[in-house]
Write a structure and sequence with these properties.
The protein is an alpha+beta fold. It contains three helices and nine strands, in the order αααβββββββββ. The longest helix has 19 residues.
Length: 178
């Protein structure tokens, strides 16, 4: 029995490998012709983020965007995704941006940094653009209505824009209107 345990990975390892396999297959099923190295970098990153925060990725939330974020004239990846607490389906969720830079030499992507950009209780975000190293997202945030009451979590009403850039390989939020 001891030898058998050494050969069969535990449930956590099986879950990790299944998640990566399902994530890779879902990209292919969506018709995206992404290189395997890109898919593997994203899947590995998401898996590690899940483990670090003890949360789960909401698969439908994963959005992959391209643009030059580090001024090297190559298309980098800006990943926007949402993590939810285990056992929840969107409640107590947070949205993140993760940046991967492209390597001309190896045709691969390297994870650089990530930052939380919104949550169920603060603001929702939608990718807008990547221009001149600047990541722009449109935001919908909690605000007060005409009677002075705060928006319900379901119905955020304030609108704004947030800007992010890499500074010393760290994502930083610049001037925002929430």
């Amino acid at each position: 029995m001891t030898q058998l345990r050494k050969v069969i990975p535990d449930a956590n390892h099986i879950t990790k490998y299944l998640f990566i396999a399902i994530l890779l297959m879902s990209y292919s099923a969506l018709g995206h012709d992404r290189p395997f190295s890109e898919q593997a970098a994203i899947a590995t990153y998401l898996l590690n983020k899940e483990e670090a925060l003890d949360r789960v990725v909401i698969r439908d939330s994963i959005k992959i965007n391209y643009g030059d974020v580090n001024y090297d004239d190559t298309n980098d990846i800006v990943l926007i995704y949402t993590l939810a607490m285990n056992g929840e389906n969107g409640n107590f969720s947070s949205t993140f941006i993760g940046v991967f830079t492209a390597s001309d030499k190896t045709s691969s992507y390297e994870f650089i940094d990530d930052i939380e950009v919104g949550s169920k209780t603060s603001r929702a975000v939608v990718f807008n653009s990547i221009k001149n190293g600047m990541i722009t997202i449109d935001t919908i945030f909690m605000s007060r209505n005409e009677s002075g009451d705060w928006d319900a979590f379901c119905c955020l009403s304030g609108e704004g824009t947030a800007y992010y850039t890499l500074s010393d390989n760290k994502l930083v939020e610049l001037n925002t209107s929430p």
